[in-house]
């Protein structure tokens, strides 16, 4: 039997089946289990607090990775602009009554200004 990799088979439908098996199915199992068990777990339970803490930490780690060690085009934008975009977005989020959309727009404006200042646009 051959290995199950993205390029294992020459048939046109194989990449789609591979994405289904390797990407969608493993994550959807956990989503399904979360939906099934959500009615039985108290919202104030220590298990839910742990899950929220881990999810928040993962999101913070991804944001920190993108800001401090970016790749691609984001790497060309100066560090001060990337950090300023995070700070400006958070400040706008708090200033505009916890509006996520306005926080994102503010951070994008700071990031675009940083790219313009660096001569990228």
From TrEMBL:
The chain crosses the membrane at residues 6-26, 47-70, 76-95, 100-119. Keywords: Membrane, Transmembrane, Transmembrane helix. It comes from the Bacteria. InterPro entries: Brnchd-chn_aa_trnsp_AzlD. It holds the Pfam family AzlD. This is AzlD domain-containing protein. It comes from Aureimonas fodinaquatilis. The lineage of its organism: Bacteria, Pseudomonadati, Pseudomonadota, Alphaproteobacteria, Hyphomicrobiales.
């Amino acid at each position: 039997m051959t290995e199950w990799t993205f390029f294992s088979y020459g048939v046109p439908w194989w990449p789609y089946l591979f994405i289904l098996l390797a990407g969608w199915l493993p994550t959807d199992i956990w989503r399904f289990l979360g939906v099934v068990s959500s009615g039985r777990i108290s919202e104030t339970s220590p298990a839910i607090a742990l899950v929220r803490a881990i999810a928040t930490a993962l999101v913070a780690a991804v944001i920190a990775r993108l800001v401090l060690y970016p790749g691609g085009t984001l790497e060309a934008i100066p560090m001060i602009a990337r950090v300023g975009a995070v700070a400006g977005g958070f400040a706008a989020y708090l200033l505009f009554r916890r509006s996520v959309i306005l926080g994102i727009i503010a951070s994008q404006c700071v990031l675009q200004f940083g790219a313009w200042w660096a001569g990228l646009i």
